[in-house]
Design brief:
single chain; 271 residues; alpha/beta; Glycerol-3-phosphate (1)-acyltransferase; 7-stranded mixed beta sheet; two-stranded antiparallel ribbon; 10 helices; 16% strand; disordered N terminus
């Protein structure tokens, strides 16, 4: 995936109106049309410190990870056709994927709440873009930003059960965006041979151990017709949920499989 330089743009009329109505809220920048959630100063001052700490962990841990990538030919075929990709993955694996695919300009849907504000800093330092919005705030505006970026030649991505769950329940954003843009959805998951799962977090956040091996499994693309009915949209959402679960289950158990079983899956994901 190749990142693209983003030209300077003028705000759209609805953005100007919103700015006039809510001058006290700071806009993120001209690329975003959702404004940040107001936070007390005690929370605001935490954001740069948390972001710096998390970024330091990723920059230290990331170079030690060893990745095996299966199914990437699906992405190459989509890009060769002239289309961009809508990526969808579970929030659990955000750390290993942001390191593996850093500096490609992928635009990620990001919540405007406190967690999203420090997360935005981290992922932008790693070379991603962000569209501010979530299922609970600014979601449709965030989708509009992502649709525009896809048209400009930039891939987009969703942590599909974020920002706060329920865990492993896919939200409809990618299917809506795929119908609007004609770009396909590709889902994936990452498994590691040594890692720490934080079971007290809503997403069961995965922290790979230093020098861990990781496998990334990419499923075939899911296309949504531009004239898809409600029934077709529901079927595509079900297909996306099923594929997310399938690659998750295989990747999470990858290093418990026998060598023969892994070879069978390698052959499957190489087709």
């Amino acid at each position: 995936m190749v990142g693209a330089a983003w030209p300077n743009e003028m705000p759209q009329p609805d953005t100007i109106v919103e700015t006039a109505k809510q001058p006290e809220r700071e806009p993120v920048n001209l690329h975003y049309d959702t404004r940040l959630t107001p936070l007390p100063w005690t929370r605001r001052i935490q954001i740069p410190f948390i972001a710096a700490a998390v970024y330091s962990v990723i920059r230290t841990l990331g170079p030690t990870l060893r990745y095996e990538v299966l199914g990437w030919q699906h992405a190459e075929k989509v890009h060769a056709s002239g289309k961009r990709i809508i990526w969808a993955f579970w929030h659990r694996i955000i750390l290993p994927i942001v390191w593996w695919h850093r500096r490609h300009g992928v635009v990620v849907m990001n919540t405007t709440a406190f967690d999203g504000q420090w997360t935005r800093k981290v992922i932008e330092w790693l070379g991603f873009g962000t569209a501010q919005g979530s299922s609970s705030r600014g979601g449709l505006r965030g989708l509009a930003v992502m649709a525009k970026r896809l048209k400009e030649g930039v891939d987009c991505a969703f942590t599909i059960d974020g920002p706060r769950g329920p865990r492993y329940v896919a939200k409809p954003g990618p299917v809506m965006l795929a119908r609007k843009t004609g770009c396909p959805i590709i889902v994936f998951h990452i498994g590691v041979d040594h890692g720490k799962t934080f079971t007290k977090t809503w997403d069961h956040f995965l922290l790979p151990m230093p020098f861990a091996r990781a496998v990334i499994l990419f499923a075939p693309p899911i296309y949504v017709p531009g004239d898809a009915s409600a029934e077709v949209m529901e079927a595509k959402h079900t297909e996306m949920q099923r594929e997310l679960e399938r690659v998750r289950d295989i990747a999470e158990g990858w290093y418990l499989l026998s060598p023969d079983a892994r070879e069978k899956h390698r052959a499957e994901f190489s087709r």
